């Protein structure tokens, strides 16, 4: 960027000028931290692009009415974090982000599949961006959550005997939480005792524990196509072969599943029965039964990821059959968690399985991370056992229903088709009629994060589908963008 | 056990009769929970052995002056947890513990080494046993720790903006903690910026992240022999070949290292330079330099586990050279954590490495567990930044010095030789002159957990050595046991 690049420079200033309203002396975080976060999110949104020159320290300080020391400090941190670079005598520039992950560069080995390129979305998805800029995000907006529930629980824990949080804690997880989860599963008609439950650091940890127990390098794991992208990378990283089973409105394509199971002899099939990500469809009872028969016939284990469980509004609105309920955890391993409904930061998930398998998976958990922290588990226990969780999820479901209706109507208006329309859940799987990789790139230029369909498929091919988060569609700019870019195609 | 087995029955009653003093209505945990823990720890200690019949509910209730409902509830929980089984019409019995872990029983595959049988010790080590019964444990006694530090920090966090703990948090870890760690490493003369640091769920998680990035199944990882047992299982589980390098008083046997490096072309060498586990020896500067030269020559990466860092009393007492200080994180990856000095339950560890590698390892962390919880990281940040940590570790070091002197004198008195005597740290590596597997078994019968030498060697061969925790030698029963069983051999 040269000094004659005036319009672009003006744009950067204008983008950064959005910041003052965010800077607040009353806020919990320091001004420095606020500036760091603001610049970071603008870079993540690509509002500030690689190579752009930042305003000088003096300019920034004046524009935001903060001291120059504050700006120096913030820019220094941004350099330390790799977002900016300082060029001697010339100022600060937005830095080229580090190269995307590649598998085992140290030791290229043709035998193992490469880690799939899910890192771009992963990095962005898990950066803290404002929800209204992220129709592609997989979480609900922070303001839909109830931070006080967590603060209050933490305060309660801080008052308990102070030596409780010194030791490693129980390998299987905090017992009162496991007892509480027993009750929760009983409501889904899944009968377990606490010794059948193993807590984990979220579902990702649970998937790693289970897959590392069952699958050797070169062996096959089935996933739905489309499905949650991060696990493709996790499984590929352990040398497993990931194969997608086409997902239809009522569950997987059974003919295809039978065919591929005979061909590949998978060790595991990881699926979501209720409010599947990214389609929010749920499994029919008939399909659930057929899958269990195929699992028996081809001797594979099913991993049922039920992270969206508490967003389901009940069978009056949408039928829901869990494989774990039919099979009672003989051939099905159940995974649950609280990242979507309570807080992603607590990192509390769990595995429910047979008693023997729970022992094996506990040992495996120990080898991966030793125990899990009891703090998050005590927080979840308190919120569940004191009845707050139920009320909180009631509220979430009402809000989701409203957001969903509104989004569906607006999609109709701009002429975008919903594929596999379903009545509940936080996602809509829409067909834009154009390559959503290209669309996501364009959206990024305008500061919006979309989730292109290619990411949700283990084969990563370009797709005209994308995932929409019905809780993150409030910005009129998104609708203008979609109307301009997509409305014409359909 | 039959009704005529009166002496044994009396013994069980007597063992359980130790409990009343532990049951307290004022305690933070419920009576039910207290009974559960008491019985559990007696089973772990093998004071209650498989097949033993528990007192009837009536007997237990009378003996401990609690209601029968309380006992019913406690026994039920113990059944649910797999410690007891209920035989209809006959009462409650101590159950056979679940079989030890075996690798991939589902899919035996001769190519990969089996998980080593470290599970017996692992399970016991991480069960909550009173420290005075566990000379073999790897942690300091709870009462040496400062639970109030953690409670106060949690209270502080609960007062912060309640929406802070909703999102996933930063992938690399809580930034203020990473800034604090930058200062901590600077004191060790290791220059890093926060973007070179990745937080983890403890050192075990860190080892898994690093090893899964560098090592393919079938490839070789070097460890010290003896060294920390859990990692043998972690590495074996990912299909790596684990080979031990003999550890001498001033570091590894360099001749052997050179020979084995040429032969096996390892990808990683995981070592402890300062207060090595289990010998508490530290590396000489000359050896540190030689290792770095060999790493260069044979192109392997060094992982320096510095978990005992803050137990080191300074170079006046014992010289300490870290490879990371010499190499400045080019070929060395530094691991640190707070499980030994602050709380194992917080599960806070970290990796320090080059900037690029930090990005790769962050991606790898995301694939294994997504982000780490900020709660533990905020707790550690507060304790470090408010200066409490330094004072607390000062106190720990003073106590350790006293415990160590006392233990060394008593070992002399009972005639047990310390191998590689060193002036600091929490462990002594002693030579008993007899098979410590047998000795540990005998100790268990008396309710003491020892750590036999076989566990610390990747080849798991019987050994006359064992590891002693100088902070856990206060029970006179241990000394009587050692005098009787070992004193005669030497």
UniProtKB/TrEMBL annotation, chains A, B:
The protein, known as: Aminotransferase class I/II-fold pyridoxal phosphate-dependent enzyme
Annotated Pfam families: Aminotran_1_2, GntR
Species of provenance: Glaciimonas soli
GO molecular function: DNA binding; DNA-binding transcription factor activity; pyridoxal phosphate binding; transaminase activity
UniProt keyword annotations, A-Z: Aminotransferase, DNA-binding, Pyridoxal phosphate, Transcription, Transcription regulation, Transferase
PANTHER family: HTH-TYPE TRANSCRIPTIONAL REGULATORY PROTEIN GABR, TRANSCRIPTIONAL REGULATORY PROTEIN
Source taxon at top rank: Bacteria
CDD domains listed in its UniProt record: AAT_like, WHTH_GntR
HTH gntR-type domain ranges (all copies): 29-97
Matches recorded under InterPro entries: Aminotransferase_I/II_large, HTH_trans_reg/aminotransferase, PyrdxlP-dep_Trfase, PyrdxlP-dep_Trfase_major, PyrdxlP-dep_Trfase_small, Tscrpt_reg_HTH_GntR, WH-like_DNA-bd_sf, WH_DNA-bd_sf
Sequence similarity: In the C-terminal section; belongs to the class-I pyridoxal-phosphate-dependent aminotransferase family.
